[in-house]
Amino acid sequence: MEAAVDFEPKIVAFLCNWCTYTGADLAGVSRIQYPSNIRPIRVMCSGSVDPMYILKALLDGADGVLVGGCHAGDCHYVNGNYKARRRLAVLQEVLDESGIGCDRVWFRFISASEGALFAETVHEMVDSLKRLGPNPLKAIWFA
Amino acid sequence: MRIGVFICHCGLNIGGVVDIPEILQTLAGYDGLEYVTDYRYMCSDPGQQVIKDAIRDKGLTGVVIAACSPAMHESTFRRTAEAAGLNPFRCEIANIREQCSWPHRDEPRRATQKALEIIRASMEKVRQNEELSPVSIPVTRQALVIGCGIAGMQAALDIADAGYKVTVVERLPYIGGHMAQLSETFPTLDCSQCILTPKASEVGSHPNIDLFTNSEVHAISGYVGNFNVTIRKKASYVNWDICNGCGLCMEKCPEKTESHFELGLATTKAISIAFPQAVPNRPVINAEVCRHFTKGKCGVCEKVCPVGAIDFEQEDTFIHREAGAIIVATGYDLHPKSKVGEYGYGVVKDVIDGLEFERLNSASGPTQGEIRRPSDGKIPKEVVFIQCVGSRDQEDGYPYCSKICCMYTAKHARLYKHKVPDGQPYVFYMDIRAGGKGYEEFVQRATEEDGVLYLRGRVSRVFEENGKIVVFGVDTLSNKKVEIHGDMVVLATAIIPSHGQTDLARLLKISTDEWGFLSEAHPKLRPVESLTRGIYIAGCAQAPKDIPDSVTQASSAAAKVLALFSSDTLSHTPEIAVVDEELCRGCGVCIEVCAYDARTLDIRRRVAVVNEVLCEGCGACQVACPSGATYQRNMGLAQVMSMIDAVI
Question: What percent of chain B has pLDDT over 70?
Fold first, then answer.
């Protein structure tokens, strides 16, 4: 399917308070520009992100969901990022089976010092979602 | 809910990109919005006054401040709200600067839309926020220090000097740890006992320090501010309260045995004080060798003791203490002899380890400080030092670097050369790691001034032949095989956690790494805290380190304890997990998930219980709970769902 040229994907991002959210703050402080398609929701830990949140966002029509946590071994809460990674791996299988596609949900380790990486990740994700086109559920449910 | 929204221009930082008048207009009429306004600098005093006035005048029950990141001013604005009589947890920040106006300055129209959605999400959050007050915990302002080597001593003294009582538990009969066994210390070559003894006697006599040597932590319960400790004081068979340390018993005791303090290089008596400067200077009977205990008759010490301090009937006693904080400084051991067979260690008598060499060097050691080899007491003319024995060895040892061996080997080689000027020291090394103040210079002097021959390479084999010790090695810089017929070999064996440390960690419910070293809460930012609040770590118990680093870490652990003791109550975030007992079915999944042991199962009622002091509020249990019985305060499932709705 050829994506509409003017399609602007909407991304809901669950960012852990200690690493990725602070990294996103740093991108702003450093005035690194990235697309405004992302809607950050600050959570204490990526391990607190319920797969239901992601499903909810996708069912509501979000085109992509980003979950950002601390690097391996750096989790503020010992191992929440590993819990998140495992939960997301399972969820992605479900998404693939259901036709939404696992490519719409990204899990990334981004530290508080990686503002540039955060910006780069948003760029990449927006590009990738533009190639994928809008969330297919939108065509079915919101037509 | 009557929500007020306050939009900050932050000069042009926000106002220059985001169309604030449009937001003011669009927000009007949003469900629950009672009041919305903007101000040039919301964090300024007049800006804060705008918020306070509105809370009072409009009777607001929740506020959203749309401004910079919560990392900047969340606490500022929560204080503002509290000052106006609003519960601070009913104040939320919408970050429209760092995550909106700054990174999207070239797309003002879309940035305005994004800001609007961020504000709405915060409004949805605050709408469901509960009024909370911090959890308050009483703090027992007394500390427990486990292990009394240089790290434990330093930590205990720092806390005691600040005016708080410290209970110190040391497994051995004396304090000072391995540092008491050292001869000189790098990089200054000052005598270890000379710098240690004054500190040790200070610990022994400090009015705020309650010292238990020959004792171990038997049991522990409680949590930060409120630990209950049971100490087992092992029987010494000497009443230390009346003993005056005269030493007559040691002199007259007929039973000799190997000295643990001298690492088997000398003998001692069945009743002994480990070394002359020991603190406390009190003897202990080794019941395994004492004739009274093994043969049922003797009692010489009992007869000669002028004060009647010998007590063969003495038993282990259990002492209870309370502590608000615990510092674990249990030190290290060396890689055992049995594991270094290829170097003849444990078989060839003149192959020794670094600590044994320290004793040979020590003026109070078995040779009175003369370098004489253990087998025949001759002065060795060629000594081979081998570094990284067990360290940096993926196959047969440990992958980590033991950190102090490069320095102490350079020290050993230099001390040897100072005492045996016509002798030749060789050092086999992999790399020289001499990072530290004055360290590199120290190693340089070993080669330049003292003629220590450094050979970069490994040793394959060490064996005895015709009274010599043959060392097969390779020099990788000249790419040649090396064969040295030496008189003594000193192995820089790996530092490993002290025996029993893993059991102690289990008792304290703190974690260790795969080698048994204690894990710090964060490798960079929280290096002296364990993951259990109120338990701190110092010295080699955490990782191999030298004396300056151990002292530094001990003092910083003490500083953490003093910060904890700065108030008699401790405040803890109320944004933690709670359990709906109507829904909980007691499956215990949350207990597995909790990284802080903050959850237990009430067996009788079959419900999970949260210890609100231990819970850190990470939220992992809320996701894991299959019954929806767990609620993360002010970040509940329904709350996040509404936030998602607000941004889509």
Answer: 100
Between positions 586 and 645 of B, the ones with CB within 8 A of A are 593, 595-596, 616-620, 622-624, 632, 635, 637, 640-641, 643-645
Q: Which CATH class is domain A11-136?
A: alpha beta
Say yes or no: A88 contacts chain B, CB-CB below 8 A. no
B648 located within any domain: no
Contact criterion met (CB < 8 Å) for A44 and B531? no
Evaluate whether B564 touches B224 at the Cβ level (below 8 Å). Answer: yes
User: Which of B455, B479, B496 represents a domain boundary (last residue)?
Assistant: B496
Yes or no: say if A70 and A111 are a contact pair by the CB < 8 Å rule: yes
Q: What is the pLDDT of residue A5?
A: 58
Instruction: Say whether B95 and A119 touch across the interface (CB within 8 A).
Output: no
Residue B364 lies in a domain: yes
- Residue B638 maps to a domain: no
Q: How far is CA B185 from the centre of its chain?
A: 23
| Yes or no, beta carbons of A60 and B111 under 8 Å apart | no
Chain B CB contacts of A12 under 8 Å are: 644, 647-648
Which ipTM score applies to this complex? 0.96
Q: How far apart, in whole angstroms, are the C-alpha atoms of residue B112 and residue A13? A: 18
Q: Of B523, B543, B564, which closes a domain?
A: B564
Bond into B187 cis (ω within 30): yes
The B residues from 492 to 551 touching A (CB cutoff 8 Å) are: 522-523, 531
Which CATH number fits the domain that encloses residue B223? 3.50.50.60
- B483 and B341 in a single domain? The answer is yes
Render B296-358 in DSSP notation, one character per residue. Answer: S---HHHHH-TT--B-TT---EEEEEEESEEEE---EEE--GGG-GGGTBTTBTTEEEHHHHH
* HEC assignment per residue over B199-224: HHHHHHHCCCEEEECCEEEEEEEEEC
Through-space distance between the first and last CA atoms of chain B, rounded to whole angstroms: 23
Q: Name the average pLDDT for chain B.
A: 96
* B252-286 confidence digits (pLDDT tens): 999 999 999 999 999 999 999 999 999 999 999 99
Structure tokens at B607: 């419900």
Structure tokens at B5: 């929204």
Other beta carbons less than 10 A from residue B559's beta carbon: 16
In whole angstroms, give the CA distance from residue B327 to residue B537.
5
Domain boundaries, chain A: 11-136
Helix (H, G, I), strand (E, B) or coil at A126: helix
Q: Are residues B584 and B512 part of one domain?
A: no
Asked if B556 and B580 sit in the same domain, the reply is no
Task: Quote the domain boundaries for residue B554.
Answer: 142-234+316-331+498-564
User: By three-state DSSP, how is residue B431 classified?
Assistant: coil
A83 touching B, CB under 8 A? yes
Taking the Cβ of residue A66 and every Cβ of chain B, the question of whether any pair is shorter than 8 Å is answered with: no
B71 closest CB neighbour out of A22, A43, A48: A22
Q: How far apart are CA B456 and CA B447, in angstroms?
A: 13
Q: In terms of domains, do B343 and B450 share one? A: yes
Interface mutation target, options B623, B631, B637, B645, chain A, most CBs of A under 10 Å = B623
> For A39, which of B97, B114, B635 is closest by C-beta distance?
B114
Name the residue with tokens 């609100």.
Answer: B612
B431 and B300 housed in the same domain: no
- Number of domains observed in the structure of chain B: 5
Degrees to nearest 5, angle at CA B514 with B508 and B519: 45
- pTM for this structure? 0.76
Find the CB nearest A56 among B523, B620, B644: B644
pLDDT of residue A75: 86
User: Do B434 and B519 lie in a common domain?
Assistant: no
B260 and B370 together in one domain: no
- Residue B133 inside a domain? The answer is no
